[in-house]
Amino acid sequence: MVEIKDLSYKWKDGDKELLNIDYLHITRGERVFLKGSSGSGKSTLLNLLSGMIVPKNGTIKVLDQTINALKPSHRDVFRANHMGYIFQTFNLVPYLSVLDNVMLPIQFSNERLQRIKNTGIEPEEEAKRLLQVVGLEGSDLLNKSATELSVGQQQRVAACRALLGSPELIIADEPTSSLDEDAQEAFINLLLKECTRKQTTLLFVSHDIRFTKYFTKVIELKNGSIKELLTTNIGGQ
Ligand SMILES: Nc1ncnc2c1ncn2[C@@H]1O[C@H](COP(=O)(O)OP(=O)(O)OP(=O)(O)O)[C@@H](O)[C@H]1O
User: Fold this and answer.
1) What stretches in the chain show pLDDT beneath 50?
2) Is 136 helix (H, G, I), strand (E, B) or coil?
3) Best residue among 9, 10, 11, 207 to mutate for probing ligand 1, ranked by most atoms within 8 Å of CB
4) CA-CA-CA-CA dihedral for 212, 187, 157, 191, to nearest 10
5) Sheet holding 2-9: strands in order across?
6) What DSSP state is assigned to residue 236?
7) Which of 11, 66, 224, 228 is the most buried (most CB within 10 A)?
8) Strand partners of residue 62
């Protein structure tokens, strides 16, 4: 599902290398918890995996596609089709309603639109289903603009947007950092439930090691390289 080989990365020529990863493999359906101290390069690694930046050395494969070999426009299409990204700051579009924010990925990805249609469900119904799963429902709320929501609500909307159209990989960059403890636990449970339902691979970045119990693989980024702390064999490829 994800394979990194001989990757090295530095932001600027002349800098010391930030990342030096010989090998990392993530299996389809795996739930991966990535930890590492502040500044260790976790977000940089996620940016590389999603093809937002490219390394000078090494290969990054997602779904057997070497994404760093793709042209920038093809990388954008690949990302839109196959990855859902939950940002630390959610990045909802402020002037769009809750429902339209969740529906946004299918504006950019025909594949994700088609995946929903193949299930015989209309895209709007699927968006509403996801919002209901995370406890957001009712036309008043769905028609509110994203700026009118609480932080916890925005976070749940961001998760639904990432999940819509079943991308094979969900990348979540410290999505729980601005929530209280109960809301964090509830959010992770909902995310895991949807990922299990669709056999989605989840790469979840957090500082909060209380949550490692929910994950099948725990990895740490330290001094630029990846250390595997736990891997549970789940089968798959
Ligand atoms: N766009 C950029 N241009 C130049 N340097 C950058 C850029 N983004 C990050 N860096 C540098 O790369 C290093 C790693 O940053 P990164 O955000 O990947 O760490 P992190 O592990 O995600 O940190 P945190 O846990 O605090 O979010 C830092 O020294 C940072 O200054």
Assistant:
1) none
2) coil
3) 11
4) 60
5) 19-26, 2-9, 57-62, 65-66
6) -
7) 224
8) 2, 65
ipTM summary value: 0.97
How many whole angstroms from 138 Cα to the centroid of ligand 1?
Answer: 39
What pTM value is reported for the model?
0.92
Distance CA(72)–CA(94), nearest Å, equals 27
Q: Residues 112, 105: contact at Cβ < 8 Å?
A: yes
Q: State whether the beta carbon of 15 lies less than 6 angstroms from ligand 1.
A: no
Give the 3-state DSSP-derived string for 51-101, with helices as H, strands as E and coil as C. CCCCCCEEEEEECCEEHHHCCHHHHHHHHHHHEEEECCCCCCCCCCEHHHH
Structure confidence at residue 182 (pLDDT): 80
- The answer to whether 137 touches 131, Cβ cutoff 8 Å, is yes
Ligand 1 centre from 167 Cα, in Å?
Answer: 26
Q: Is the CB of 206 under 6 A from ligand 1?
A: no
